[in-house]
């Protein structure tokens, strides 16, 4: 295995949720399934409202932890809280349905290029996943989605959420490389800004959902797919 590209990259780190798997679509499907199990057929507006309640809770609690106003809790705890909030809004009372909804992150579908693109890049570099998902959820998600990493890291080990610098440091330390030789790949521009602040190289990969770059963002690579990114790295 070649471990250094002409661009000086020695290892590639991937965000997982949203970048490698369809987090938004999977969560939507899980909400529809949970509400339908109660005998209701939710319309699009209802599902959108419930998804907003979920996302607002998750993002708000992660922000509070980053600000120090809440002690760290892993993704399983926060997702369980979000599922209970959705259940309260939707009138769900079946504990099994709420528990299955809370574990939606364990059964997300990979994007169509994720498995093959990851394998292609793994033939040239050590590849690592770096995710907000808890250690347990990440293990089950990787198995479900068929993602084959050389190493998968959970932000739970840093007891923080991106863009906290200690999360990126997990990946940098795991590679044993200087940060400028480690490439962070994500579909979320905010994530790449955090990686860049930690000294990493950055690559934005477009997905149907995500956080697109601003005109002021300066990332090292931008690609429409993992195959395009792999080709770009090979040619660099």
Give your account of this protein's structure.
The chain is of the alpha/beta class and 236 residues long. 48% of the residues lie in helices and 11% in strands. It has helices spanning 23-37, 44-67, 75-90, 95-102, 114-122, 135-145, 165-175, 189-197, 226-235, and strands spanning 11-15, 127-131, 151-154, 182-186, 201-205, 221-223. A six-stranded parallel beta sheet has the order 3-2-1-4-5-6, sandwiched between helices. α2 packs antiparallel against α3 (75-90).
Structure at a glance:
By secondary structure, the protein is α/β, with parallel strands linked by helices. It is built from 9 helices and 6 strands. It has helices at 23-37, 44-67, 75-90, 95-102, 114-122, 135-145, 165-175, 189-197, 226-235, and strands at 11-15, 127-131, 151-154, 182-186, 201-205, 221-223.
What series of H and E elements makes up the topology? EHHHHHEHEHEHEEH
Q: Distance N terminus to C terminus?
A: 17 Å
Strand sequence of the main sheet, in spatial order?
A: 3-2-1-4-5-6
Look at the helices and sheets and give the structural class: alpha/beta
Instruction: Count every helix, treating DSSP H or I runs of 4 or more residues as helices.
Output: 9
Largest sheet, in brief, is:
6 strands, parallel
Shape: globular
Strand-residue fraction? 5-15%
Mean pLDDT: 95
Spans with pLDDT under 50 lasting ≥5 residues?
Answer: none
| Total number of strands | 6
Radius of gyration: 18 Å
Helix amount: 40-55%
């Amino acid at each position: 295995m070649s471990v250094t590209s002409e661009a000086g990259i020695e290892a590639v780190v991937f965000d997982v949720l949203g970048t490698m798997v369809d987090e938004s679509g999977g969560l939507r499907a899980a909400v529809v399934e949970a509400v339908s199990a109660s005998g209701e057929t939710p319309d699009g507006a209802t599902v959108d409202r419930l998804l907003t309640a979920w996302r607002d809770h998750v993002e708000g609690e992660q922000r509070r932890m980053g600000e120090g106003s809440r002690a760290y809790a892993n993704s399983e705890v926060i997702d369980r809280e979000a599922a209970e909030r959705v259940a309260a809004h939707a009138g769900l009372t079946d504990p099994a349905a709420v528990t299955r909804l809370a574990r939606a992150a364990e059964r997300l579908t990979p994007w169509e290029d994720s498995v093959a693109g990851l394998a292609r890049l793994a033939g040239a570099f050590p590849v690592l996943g770096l995710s907000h998902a808890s250690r347990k959820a990440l293990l089950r998600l990787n198995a479900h989605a068929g993602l084959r990493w050389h190493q998968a890291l959970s932000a739970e080990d840093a007891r923080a959420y991106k863009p906290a610098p200690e999360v990126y440091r997990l990946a940098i330390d795991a590679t044993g490389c200087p940060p400028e030789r480690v490439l962070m790949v994500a579909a979320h521009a905010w994530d790449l800004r955090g990686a860049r602040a930690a000294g990493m190289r950055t690559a934005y990969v477009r997905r149907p959902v995500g956080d697109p770059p601003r005109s002021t963002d300066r990332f090292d690579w931008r690609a429409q797919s993992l195959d395009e990114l792999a080709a770009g790295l090979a040619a660099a």
